[in-house]
Structure formats: structure tokens, C-alpha cells
Acetyl-coenzyme A synthetase
Amino acid sequence: MASPTESTAIEALLHEERVFPPDPAFTRNANVNDPGVYERAQSDPEAFWADWARQLDWIKPWDTVCTWDPPHAQWFVGGQINVSANCLDRHLKTARRNKAAIIFEGEPGDTRVLTYHDLWREVNRFAGVLKNLGVNKGDRVTIYLPMIPEAAVAMLACTRIGAPHSVVFGGFSADSLRERINDSQSKVLITSDGGFRRGNVVPLKAACDAALDGGACPSIESVIVFNRTTTDESQTPMQAGRDHWWHRLLEDAPRLVEPEPMDSEDPLYILYTSGSTGKPKGILHTTGGYLTQVHATTKCVFDLKDEDVYWCTADVGWVTGHSYVVYGPLAAGATVLMYEGAPDFPARDRFWALVEKYGVTILYTAPTAIRAFMKWGTEHPDKHDMTSLRLLGSVGEPINPEAWMWYHEHIGGGRCPVVDTWWQTETGAIMITPLPGLVATKPGSATRPFPGIEADVVDEQGNSVPPGGGGFLVLRRPWPSMLRTLWGDDARYRQVYWSRFDGRFYFAGDGAKRDEDGYFWLLGRVDDVMLVAGHNISTMEVESALVDHPSVAEAAVIGRTHEIKGQAIAAFVTVKDGTGATPEFAAELKEHVSKKLGAICRPDDILFSAELPKTRSGKIMRRLLRDIAEGRALGDTTTLADPNVVSSLKDRYESQEG
Ligand code: 6R9
């Protein structure tokens, strides 16, 4: 980040002219097609959110919609509600009773369908299991499972009895699991013997044993193990008195458990987000406001209808999996496709084979996946009939305009609206996004704040930046699904999100610019912004200029120290399959960026790489690339998906320099 004495505005250099207005036929049938919704929500946001809250089943109505004692908000104060009752019981009174809630496909190709009635039954039984093990309202439960229906069953069962869950992504190590269990002081750990990934078994139970080894997690009383990967139970070592098979516990569990009446502000879950360094932050979400906003956004942003087959490819270990695989879609009565494995197993067309097989209508995935598909080539989607698709979504990182266009054309057949949705673990639900029946989209822009959300772009002093300029993305008003605090560390909550602008607004940590139409363009994390010869340049814009070249699939850009300019631009580039990574091509790319954004953005170094270092949720880790480019020892690599990628890049970068 720039120091106050230097130029502080983030430059806005990339100009995107393409505009895609909504198809009138789509608008006619859209869940939201009245443009007045924005104004109405702006003039009375509390009334807007209260209307959405009323669409849920409340055990007791609220007294006050919102109280705001900065930086702490409460929503639907005095109300009582149960999340599992809204995701399940509510639908049993309607024709959704026998509708598929979850269509599951395992990586090996096994399939299961759970109707809403089936899911309700399984959640009741598993809630009974938790009760039998002594889990009471308020006790924490850690869930460490693959992407199988039991993950949703376990989460919903926790909400049924009022036990906040902490889901830990199945790709995290034993150390990460231990740290999260101990921070949340969980009483029970739910896992499986393993899960399937690229044809191998990920040994989850073994990781749990390592995490708990030698009494390292004293709060854990019981471990529940689902049998996913073996036919022979005896292959999984079980510690007597501590470990129990899921299916055995079901035998003695009550079959019906009444939903616990939860106060709107009772904790719903904790989800740890690692950030780039330091101890993971336990993001705390509460009940009524969270459910209201995930439900509203699912209906409005994805235009979800009863007949849709909805597929969000995120793992339940991330917030996207919480809000848009489980809680939002099930509250809305959707049919959710859930897939366990990798997109390239057994072949690079697995996603498209699934879209064809199940007639997927709505697909929500991440730019990292889209750029991998671009790299692999169009022959994989082209093999399949994907005409069932009617809406596409993107989340997780800024989507480069060319990746947006590729998604729109090659996956959406040019006919599906693309919703680029900006939000965070902390925000709980979508915050900036097009409404597909109302808002014309521009490739690379998340467009406008969702109705009822007040976002702004401000400068270093917190003043609104005029249209065309860049700055810091902030939120000016509390929203129902906002984090309430960091678990056990309110001081850190205040410091991380509220101290930057003296408590005046929530600071998201992202850079953004707003164009003349009021559209928001996300520029990446502000810690990544480069300072080149006095100009603050966003990594996102230079990356997008690189991806704009027809032979480039993905790029990561960083600033490295430079004697004269302050920082020089170094680019790590992945080319599409079949393109030669030659010095001539590197020269061509430098020229390409220079033409597109101006000479100031011309990269000094280009290094070709088949892979870029990413977090396990697929976000590019530029911090490590900076370490490489500056010849430093690599910083913390524990959150990387594949640590080999950086070490080999480091070797190559150094040999190129020498
Ligand atoms: C939902 C999720 C949050 C960070 C966020 C931003 C980046 C997410 C984005 C996006 C640009 C989008 N991000 N969606 N940037 N455009 N549509 O990803 O949560 O894992 O907490 O990450 O991801 O930098 O601040 P989380």
C-alpha cells in the first residue's frame, strides 16, 4: 500500500467498452424485473430486508429490524428462528416434499438423490446422534468432510440443535485442523475415512488422528466417522471411547428432533479464513440476518426457480459452499447438484459431462476454474450439449474481461447472463452483483451493489472518489449477513475491519474503481497494489491486459523493488495449451500490455509458468511471487494448494536472472 506522502489514488487504466443488456425475454420471466427495487431499497433498506425476512418461517417475530452500535450490528432483534426448519421442514408442507434437494455425484461416478423429505429425515436422525453424544445448544462442532451429502446433513443437524459449526476444508492439513479445533473449542469432530480426489483417496480420518494425537485437542470428546471410501470398516483404526462410526450411531438415535428456537442473533457458525499471514480469523455469523440475506440473494442474483438444476462448484469448506451450496439454495427450495471431485478427472470435460447429464441450468464457479478451462481449450465443452444452461455466475477473484467473454461464449453459448458476484467470508452473502433481469453487464465488472447495500470507493482520507477514479472499497451501512465479530477476539475485529477509517465504515481490504455509470470494478487486494514511478497500479488491470492476448490463459503480476521507479512490474504468465513460451512471445506480450494500458504498465520481466501459486480456494498468492522476484526466502507457504509450484518457480526465476 502507498504511504500517505506518495500518490494515493489507484489508477484506473483499463477501458472496457462491451456492454450486454439483459435479454427482454429473460427480464420478462425474471424473479426481479422491477427497476424500482434499487430506489425503494435505498430509501428504506430496513423495510427492504424486513420484506425478505418475512418470507422465512419465524418461530417468534422480531421487535426491531436493526440496531447499529458501531461496529456491532444486530438484525431482527427479539425474533426466533431455526435454520434447518427453514431449509427443510418449511418445504415439506408443499410440493417440494418429493423434489430433489441434493443430486450427488461422487468422483468415481456413484450417484445419490435426496429429496427434501429424505434430507429432512437424515438431518433429524443425525441431530439425534449429536444429542446422544451430549451436544447442546451453543456447543461447537467441527466438520471435516469431503463434498458429500453428509456435509450438508451435518451442517443442518448442527443448526437444528443450535450448535455452531466450524467447517474445515478437507484439503487442510492436520496442523490447520488442530489450530481451528482448539480456537473454537469444539466438543465433537465429524469426518469420514476419506474422500476421492483425482482418483486417489484423501485420508481424512488419518489427518484427524494426527490433529488429535497426544491429547492435542482436549475439548474433543467424540469423533464421528462416515464411511465413504472403504467397504471394510476394520481398515480404519478407531480409538475406543472416542471414535464412532456414523452409521452405528444412527442405530440408537431418536428419529425426530424438534428444531431448537434460536434467537436471531444466536451464533450460526464460525468459519476460519486464513488471510495472507497470521493466525486464522474465526468469522462469526449469526442466524436470522444471515439466512435472510443468503435466501434473498439466491433468489434475486441466480434468478432461482423451482425447475432449475443449480450447481455451485465451491467446496463446503469455503463460505461460498456455506451460503450458496447449502443455506441459500435449500432455503429457496432449490435442486442442488453436488460433485465430490476434480474438474479434470477422469478427463478435462468432467464438468461439462455433468452439466449435460443432469441438465444443469445455473452454474456458479470461480475465475481460477474458468482460466484453467481456457487453458485446456474449447474442445472439452464442445463435446457436450450444454443448452440447458441459462445463467452463469463467477466468484472468488476479479474475473478478467477475456475470461468473462470466454465463459459467456464457450460455456454460456452467448445466451446466458453472467453474474460476477463480489463478496467475502466476512460479508456472508453477495454484496456487489448484477441482477440478471435488470442490469446490463460489462465484462470484468461486478456492476452495482445489491439493493439495500451501500458500497463506496474512497481515498486514503475516506472521501468518496469521483466517477472514473480508483480507491478503497468500503461499505457504509450494516447489512443482515455481516460478520458480527471474530470468534473470541473482538479487538482484532475492530482493528482489521474498522480501524482503517476510524470506525466510519467497513473496510474490505479490496481496491476498486467506479465508472461513469456507477459500475464497480474490483481491482484486487490493496496489499497487492504496485507503486510504479509514483503511480498506484492494480495488479488486476495488468493481468487483464495480459489475459486479453489470445494465447494467454492466466497471469499473476507483482511489483518488485526497482532503484529508479520504486517498483518494476514482474509478470508470471500461463499460456494456453499449444502456445510456445518463447523470448519472442515475452517481448510481444510486453508490447501488448504497453499498447493496452500505456508504457508505464509495461512489464519489466515475464516468466512463463505452467502453474501459479494459489491458495486452496484458488486465489493467486502474489505475496509469494514478490518473495521470489525480490530473491527473499519464501514466506509462509502453508496455505498453498501445491507448495512445489513456488519452489520450482523460485529456481527458474533465479536461473533466468543469473
Ligand atoms: C466469496 C469469497 C474474499 C475476497 C474478496 C476479493 C475476492 C471475491 C470477487 C472478488 C473480485 C469478485 N473476491 N469475489 N474479487 N470480484 N467477484 O471469495 O470469499 O474467500 O473470503 O474471499 O475474494 O478480494 O475480498 P473469501
